[in-house]
Specification:
single chain, 114 residues, alpha+beta, GMP Synthetase, Chain A, domain 3, three-stranded mixed β-sheet, 3 helices, 17% strand, elongated, disordered N terminus, MIP18 family-like domain-containing protein, FSCA_dom_sf, MIP18
Length: 114
């Protein structure tokens, strides 16, 4: 079985199918990241009347999605509070998790906020 698997990998590599599959996978992960970003960017700051996007707490580049398996993803959200040692950073993280969980990923998902 390993011989067949190795042979198929080489065929994909030689024909360029491997790159095509990786490109599709990358595009899918980018689309999922944008879905998550579209949801969390509209969250309002707990202390200000602005959204997280308006305050540059989150940007498109701060969301990353990695595929772990079939319909399993790791979503990484890196956000920068407006002030160092922000006491409401945890609340922002919980809001981002709660808002984006139901909207963007309806499958097995792991989350990491940094």
């Amino acid at each position: 079985m390993e011989l067949v698997s190795g042979l198929l990998s080489r065929v994909r590599l030689l024909t360029g199918l491997s790159e095509l599959t990786n490109d599709k996978r990358s595009k899918k992960m980018e689309e999922k990241a944008l879905e998550v970003y579209d949801v969390i960017r509209t969250i309002r700051d707990p202390e200000k009347p602005n959204t997280l996007e308006e305050l540059d707490v989150v940007t498109e580049k701060c969301v990353e999605v990695q595929e772990l398996g079939d319909d399993e993803y790791l979503i990484i959200i890196k956000f920068s509070p407006t002030v160092p040692h922000c006491s409401l950073a945890t609340l922002i993280g919980v809001c981002a998790y709660k808002s984006s969980f139901s909207a963007a990923c309806r499958s097995n998902t792991s989350w990491r906020f940094t």
